[in-house]
């Protein structure tokens, strides 16, 4: 077998996996999900999901990857369960789907960096619509972004993916802390923080519970075998459990700090008026792409600097995630079809870019893709959805399905003693640890049951507009 390469050490793996986790999901999605999903009540649920439900999934994915040293499809085959290879295929499909729309949003963010530099603050919906429908511009940015992603992945695991993460992750932390510190100096900052941190139980419904779980899976890059793939480049002496703890803490920490940066900025702009009505108008992409640029314009001289740093930060975060999304199908093609990495990257990246065209066109360029589907989002009114939002919603839901099936596989098919024996390599005290209990009870009872129930809640809510939580408990 050809040498697949690997991470140089545990830190390299943690940084790369945290790089995969920290992305648009943390800085773009998390704050508006919190805003619309009940403030701190949402944050508490989110933390529970990350540490209780997602943790066993993460450890399982890494363990399967390290045990087999294979891509998600090859991994199930190598364990001797050919019938489960469909789960790997589902993961690869998900990765392709996510990258196809993620690259478009990453391209928007990257383009905004240049708009901010030239002091062009796109701060109303019309201008944003004009920006996303300018197909030459946004198309160009998304090509550049895909090329950058491909350039990194071609260089391999340690020379490309790990090296990028070693440079960008610390940079990103410095940038986000700097921006947060600045946001705290603005008028009404505390009103923003209060809104972010005081729970509002009334806003909890199927939409927010499902939203928190989907967000946890998406943000931690779980459910599609990204961590099976990264895990396949991890050494036997490395401790999987502590790695998973660091990855989760970094991801959750950065999402939390992103909220601490963004809500003071919003509060500055609304003069401290943080009612739900005000906040509902900054749902979705408009928070990052319309509201924040407006804030940057209003803060005066420093606006160009703060705005540019913000969008560069967003682009960096996105890049360490897009490389992981591309690596999954690339590893599959390299392992299973014996294609050389370089060729695999060119083929896979081109296909994904082409598949992403409908998403690119759904920003206003094509009326067909822009008003693609009427989907009963949430429990209230049906909303029309563009192709990109629909793709994102389907992908989120599939990640949940993938995660549920992975734990069922680990608990009942591969069996927990095999999982445990893989985890204990690199972790001497594992047998007597709390982690073992959490993981074992997790993969056999807690995760299969709760994830399955929540998966049903999410599907009913997202695709049929039925709020099971309200129906059953209120
Ligand atoms: N975790 C990334 C984010 O939060 O932006 C998105 C992502 C990357 C999801 C890689 C899934 C994945 F495999």
Mind explaining what this structure looks like?
The protein has 474 residues and is mainly α. The chain has a single domain (10-473), classed as Amino acid/polyamine transporter I, CATH 1.20.1740. Helix content is 77%, strand content 1%. It contains 21 helices and 2 strands. Strands 1-2 form a two-stranded antiparallel sheet. Strand 1 (373-375) and strand 2 (383-385) form a beta hairpin. The longest helix has 38 residues, at 387-424. Mean pLDDT is 92; it is low at 378-382. Residues 20-21, 23-26, 95, 98, 218-219, 221, 224, 226, 321, 324-325 line the site of 4-fluoro-L-phenylalanine.
Brief description of this entry?
The protein is mainly α and 474 residues long.
CATH topological fold name: Amino acid/polyamine transporter I
Number of individual domains: 1
Q: Cα distance, first to last residue?
A: 58 Å
Mean pLDDT: 92
User: Which molecules are bound besides the chains?
Assistant: 4-fluoro-L-phenylalanine
| Number of distinct helices | 21
How many strands in all? 2
- Characterize the overall form: globular
- Strand order in space, largest sheet: 1-2
The succession of helices and strands, N to C, reads: HHHHHHHHHHHHHHHHHHEEHHH
Tell me what the CATH architecture is.
Answer: Up-down Bundle
Report the helical percentage: over 70%
Q: Could you list some keywords that capture this structure?
A:
Amino acid/polyamine transporter I, 77% helix, 474 residues, two-stranded antiparallel ribbon, 21 helices, binds 4-fluoro-L-phenylalanine, mainly alpha
């Amino acid at each position: 077998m050809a040498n697949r390469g690997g991470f140089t050490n545990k830190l390299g793996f943690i940084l790369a996996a945290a790089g995969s986790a920290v992305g648009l999901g943390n800085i773009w999605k998390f704050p508006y999900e919190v805003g619309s999903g009940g403030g701190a009540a949402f944050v508490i649920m989110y933390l529970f999901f990350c540490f209780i439900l997602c943790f066993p999934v993460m450890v399982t994915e890494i363990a399967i990857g390290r045990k087999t040293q294979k891509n998600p499809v090859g991994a199930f085959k190598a364990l001797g369960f050919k019938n489960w290879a469909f789960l790997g295929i589902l993961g690869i499909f998900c990765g392709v789907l996510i990258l196809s729309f993620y690259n478009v949003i990453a391209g928007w963010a990257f383009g905004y960096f240049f708009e901010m530099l030239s002091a062009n603050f796109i701060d109303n919906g019309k201008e944003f619509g004009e920006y996303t429908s300018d197909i030459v511009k946004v198309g160009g940015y998304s090509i550049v972004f895909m090329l950058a992603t491909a350039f990194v992945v071609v260089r391999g695991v340690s020379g490309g993916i790990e090296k990028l993460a070693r440079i960008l992750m610390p940079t990103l932390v410095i940038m986000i802390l700097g921006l947060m510190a600045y946001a705290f100096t603005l008028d009404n900052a505390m009103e923003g923080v209060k809104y972010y941190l005081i729970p509002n139980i009334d806003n909890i419904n199927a939409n927010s519970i499902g939203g928190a779980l989907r967000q946890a899976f998406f943000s931690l890059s779980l459910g599609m075998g990204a961590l099976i793939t990264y895990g396949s480049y991890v050494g036997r002496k490395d401790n999987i459990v502590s790695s998973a703890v660091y990855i989760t803490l970094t991801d959750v920490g950065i999402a939390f700090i992103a909220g601490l940066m963004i809500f003071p900025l919003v509060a500055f702009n609304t003069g401290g008026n943080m009612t739900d009505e005000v906040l509902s108008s900054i749902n979705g992409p408009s928070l990052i792409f319309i509201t924040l640029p407006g804030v940057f314009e209003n803060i005066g001289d420093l606006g160009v600097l703060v705005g540019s740093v913000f969008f560069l930060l967003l682009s960096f975060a996105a890049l360490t995630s897009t490389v992981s999304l591309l690596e999954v199908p690339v590893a599959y093609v390299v392992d299973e079809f014996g294609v050389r990495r370089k060729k695999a990257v060119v083929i896979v990246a081109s296909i994904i870019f082409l598949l992403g065209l409908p998403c690119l066109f759904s920003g206003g360029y094509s009326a067909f893709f822009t008003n693609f589907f009427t989907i009963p989002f949430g429990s209230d009114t049906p909303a029309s959805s563009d192709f990109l939002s629909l793709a994102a919603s389907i992908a989120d839901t599939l990640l949940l399905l993938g995660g549920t099936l992975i734990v069922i596989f680990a608990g009942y098919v591969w069996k927990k003693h095999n999982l445990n024996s893989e985890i204990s390599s690199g972790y001497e005290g594992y047998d007597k640890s709390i982690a073992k209990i959490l993981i074992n009870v997790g993969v056999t009872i807690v995760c299969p049951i709760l994830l399955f129930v929540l998966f049903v809640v999410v599907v009913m809510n997202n695709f049929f507009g039925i709020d099971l939580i309200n129906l059953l408990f209120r």
